[in-house]
Design a protein that fits this description.
- There is one protein chain.
- 17% of the residues lie in helices and 47% in strands.
- With 95 residues, it is an alpha+beta fold.
- A six-stranded antiparallel β-sheet has the order 1-2-6-3-4-5, covered by helices on one side.
- Strand 4 and strand 5 form a beta hairpin.
């Protein structure tokens, strides 16, 4: 897993790229993503139910099915957040 962070103009961003052999639980992801209090989120996840893209704005969370992806990835943009993003993300992995 690779992590990148950035900040500017009063906002922070954090992103992860996750190896394709790490499979996420779709229901746990939906709960995690739906509870985020952030400005914007873009993601693609390889789940036990297939590959899904996610987009979150002030209008809400959207989910769409994809045919393929080389990896899972997530980018969050926020003005303030917690240090638990990564811990909460990893708790969505299938065990």
């Amino acid at each position: 897993m690779l992590k990148a962070t950035n900040k500017g103009d009063g906002f922070y961003s954090v992103g992860w790229r996750i190896a394709p052999d790490k499979i996420f639980n779709r229901q746990k992801l939906l709960q995690f993503l739906g509870e985020l209090k952030i400005e914007r989120m873009k993601a693609v996840f390889i789940t036990e139910s297939g590959i899904f893209g996610y987009n979150s704005t002030s209008d809400g969370l959207t989910e769409y099915e994809l045919d393929e992806s080389f990896e899972s990835r997530l980018e969050l943009i926020f003005d303030k957040g917690d240090d638990l993003f990564e811990e909460r993300l990893l708790s969505c992995l299938e065990h």
